[in-house]
């Protein structure tokens, strides 16, 4: 073995694929029973509908290098993501745009009129001087829109009142003064035609790559554990950085989500893939309906059944899947301390969202893995 990769998410598999293509023998271990990390998806057993097991994943990028690279393993559908929001029993388009504003204020404002209205309402607070998230939000888009679509949604995500949350959680709240409600502005967008797992499996499908599942790097009963491998073989580690150092500098905090799945005996539950629920009296943040990600799979799409996930958000304990970095001041200090420790780990390269404690979209994880390969490992 020339390289050990810990974690088979997009970061780990990109490193493994590049190394294998360059003639290196690579072993990839993952503690889960499947490859792919959080992008893993599978067919729901009774309907065949592709379900994203760790939250909905939409691929989008403006990075031409990444786009060229990912197209070696999959084609993409022409899916364009759009999100809607049910507030007080009425459905609005997101991100907040001219359609949202006119529906909300029961008006027919022109772009200039809507812009002037939002500027006037936002005048209540200076976003630069905001003491908390509520003041920042009001200073960016005005109280009515902030309270309807952002305040309680964010409070549910963080299980914390918007007045108690730091202003820094939101740097900007985009408002579009057109009726364009495409969620992403990137040059390329789509879903993998044969699903995420087929894409991920093709990346790992190389005679120089061996994948071992159900192997935890910290389980010393396994041959490929930390003690046995560090200093013996180059390691790319994509698990949590605090876990690697046995939490010596404290635990970095994360948010997690709980997804409650239901298979329903109806053809269509909500008519779209993602519906937000921004009101405080609804306990979940959004509902995903997976068949709407692939309307081109007509047989599956047209059946009289559908699969939905209700998404609930909360702080993660050590036993939970870490999803979104909380990034408190203590977390940032902890991360700096771990980065110092990481410098002393000869031959170990920390990467991916868990190894660097940052939220990375898939194209960012793949892009940073390509950079690590080109700049450090090749
Ligand atoms: P990832 O977490 O995928 O992989 C790490 C792997 O390491 C895991 O398989 C884990 O089991 C393994 N591991 C950890 N510790 C280990 C140990 N001790 N021993 C062995 N293995 C170990 N992005 C996007 O572009 N569009 C989107 O719509 C979304 N949506 C989205 C929703 C939600 C809820 C989340 C949390 C994230 C997204 N993402 C996303 C981001 C996407 O999930 C992310 O870019 C990739 O997961 C990053 O891949 P990594 O390889 O870095 O981590």
TrEMBL record:
InterPro entries given in the database record: UDP-GALP_mutase (IPR004379), UDP-GalPyranose_mutase_C (IPR015899)
GO cellular component, one term: cytosol
Top-level lineage group: Bacteria
Cofactors, names only: FAD
Keyword Flavoprotein belongs to the record: yes
Ranges for domain UDP-galactopyranose mutase C-terminal: 148-359
Alphabetical UniProt keywords: FAD, Flavoprotein, Isomerase
Gene3D superfamilies named in the record: NAD(P)-binding Rossmann-like Domain (3.40.50.720)
GO molecular function: flavin adenine dinucleotide binding; UDP-galactopyranose mutase activity
Matching Pfam families: GLF, NAD_binding_8
Statement: the UniProt record of this protein carries the keyword Flavoprotein: yes
Family assignment from sequence similarity: Belongs to the UDP-galactopyranose/dTDP-fucopyranose mutase family.
Name of this protein: UDP-galactopyranose mutase
Organism: Microbacterium keratanolyticum
């Amino acid at each position: 073995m020339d390289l050990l990769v810990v974690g088979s998410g997009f970061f780990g598999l990109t490193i493994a694929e590049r190394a294998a293509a360059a003639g290196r023998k690579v072993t990839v271990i993952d503690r889960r029973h499947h490859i792919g990390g959080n992008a893993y998806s599978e067919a729901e057993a009774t309907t065949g509908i592709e379900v994203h097991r760790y939250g909905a994943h939409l691929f989008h990028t403006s990075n031409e290098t990444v786009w060229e690279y990912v197209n070696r393993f999959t084609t993409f559908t022409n899916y364009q993501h759009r999100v809607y929001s049910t507030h007080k029993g009425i459905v609005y388009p997101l991100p907040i745009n001219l359609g949202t504003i006119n529906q909300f204020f029961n008006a027919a404002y022109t772009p200039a009129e809507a812009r002037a209205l939002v500027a006037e309402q936002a005048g209540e607070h200076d976003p630069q001087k905001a003491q908390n998230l509520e003041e920042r939000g009001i200073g960016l888009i005005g109280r009515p829109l902030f309270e309807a679509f952002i305040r309680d949604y964010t409070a549910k995500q963080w299980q914390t009142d918007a007045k108690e949350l730091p202003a820094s959680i939101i740097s900007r709240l985009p408002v579009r003064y057109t009726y364009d409600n495409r969620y992403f502005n990137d040059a390329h967008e789509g879903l993998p035609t044969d699903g995420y797992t087929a894409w991920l499996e093709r990346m790992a499908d190389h005679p120089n790559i061996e994948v071992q599942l159900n192997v935890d790097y910290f389980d010393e009963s396994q041959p490929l554990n930390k003690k046995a491998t560090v200093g013996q073989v180059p390691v790319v580690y994509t698990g949590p950085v605090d876990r690697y150092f046995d939490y010596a500098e404290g635990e970095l905090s994360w948010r997690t989500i709980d997804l409650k799945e239901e298979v329903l005996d109806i053809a269509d539950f909500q008519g779209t893939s993602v519906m937000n629920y921004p009101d405080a009296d609804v306990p979940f943040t959004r509902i995903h309906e997976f068949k709407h990600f692939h309307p081109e799979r007509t047989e599956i799409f047209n059946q009289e059944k559908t699969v939905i996930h209700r998404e609930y958000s909360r702080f993660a304990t050590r036993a939970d899947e870490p999803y979104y970095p909380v990034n408190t001041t203590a977390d940032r200090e902890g991360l700096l301390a771990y980065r110092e420790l990481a410098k002393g780990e000869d031959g170990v390269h920390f990467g991916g969202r868990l190894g660097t404690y940052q939220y990375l979209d898939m194209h960012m994880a793949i892009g940073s893995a390509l950079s690590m390969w080109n700049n450090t490992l090749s």
